[in-house]
Amino acid sequence: MFKSVNRRDGGQKEQEEAVQLRREIGLLSATSLIIGTVVGSGIFIAPKGVLMNSGSVGLSLLVWALCGVLSLFGALCFAELGTSFTKSGGQYTYLLEIFGPLPAFVRLWVDFMFIRPSVTGYVSLAFGSYMVEPFFTPCAAPAALVKLVSILGVTLIVTINCWSVTVASRTQIVLTFVKLFALVMIIIPGVIALSRGQTENFQNGFEVESLTLDRLPLAFYNGLYAYGGWFYLNCVTEEVINPNRNIPLAIALSMVMVTILYVLTNVAYYTMMTPAELLMSDAVAVTFANRAIQTFAPVVPLLVALSCLGALNGGIFGSPRMLFVGGRDNLWPRIFSMIHIRRRTPLPAVMLQYPLTVVMILSGEIYQLVNFASFSRWLFIALATLGMLIHRKRFPLHPRPFKVPLVVAVTFTLVCFFIVILSLYSDPFNTGCSLALTLTGIPVYYITIYRPSCIPNKCKHLFNYCSRQLQILLEVAQQEVKTY
């Protein structure tokens, strides 16, 4: 009897010491990951872009509400995908399982090359702007200083995610409560002013003559950018405790809460600011605070900056898991699938995206980066939900612990494709560049994955040598326990 117990205890100890990513994300952490990633710089930056492209107060509020509903529909679709497929990796995994390796590889390619660096870049620039500009008001802050602070912010978050999954998760919870406090500070004065009859900015709110069809997709892009991040929980499915319960529940709770908060925040903005004032402001939350809550106005930029850090942390926590799973499946360099032998973090996948992020910060501008990244991001989201519908048809008996209504999945997929196609007309340069960079993944796939014999042996040996040296330097190893 004693030998049996010792053997079991030894096996449990060996399991605990094995190199693997552990299930450490509960319901609170999962909800915080979604809310903390969604509520970032978007609600403090995107109102200007939504109003600029929708043309009126009423239409902009309608866009915010519809973007919330659309994001909820998409999140529910991903809840079904996340409970149907037990692997981490999010969109990459779903495209691989349903459509095969080519679209899955292209998704990894665009995420590594420009989607994740662009998204991280514009959130980092928002962080830098809100940290620096209060010290230079009313003058413009030096662009070089903004970019330096942006790089320092993203460096801090990358370091946390390389250090510990637990620390990164707890950091996300703390920053989520900070950003919810920031939104409440904006909503309460607006609601009080609205209840006192301050409604002049809502009169003639639906001026449809100022709406043009070619600008409407950009209004939705800006709104959906503010809601972006609801899909990152699917990237860490293997680390979620009881995923069949916690993934759908966390998604539903977080997206309903965020939609209500976003609409109320925009109502508060328009209660205290005219549309012209909002369009002239590059820091909407700060302008609002100076108008409505002067006592707390100096604190608002700090709260917004911390909110941006939360969005950075959520994205950097979730997105590298896609590259991690791709490396594990031999569709991406194996070094990305390795875990630090003591920290139990996917250190290479987190670190190796950092250089391109710095390049985007140094060369990019916030609104340009939003449009640049959105095309490919939403194209692959639409393909993932289309794949979900195809998978239902092909495999009706496949276990689906959570199943979204058909009308929700079809509506979300059609709207996504409509926005993606129309954006090529609305912003042909940025979306055209995004499409071109996406298509470059196809020849790369055929050269590196489908026909690796095309690569000279010297190049292969050099790459393998660099990978081994990097593995030794970073102290990382392959995962030892199957977690899906």
From TrEMBL:
Membrane topology note: Multi-pass membrane protein
Keywords: Membrane, Transmembrane, Transmembrane helix
GO cellular component: membrane
One Pfam family per UniProt: AA_permease_2
GO terms of molecular function: L-amino acid transmembrane transporter activity
InterPro entries per record: AA/rel_permease1 (IPR002293), AminoAcid_Transporter (IPR050598)
Membrane spanning residue stretches: 25-46, 58-82, 94-115, 135-161, 173-195, 215-235, 247-272, 292-312, 345-363, 369-390, 402-423, 429-448
Main location: membrane
Compartments it resides in: Membrane
Protein name: Si:ch73-352p4.8
Organism: Cynoglossus semilaevis
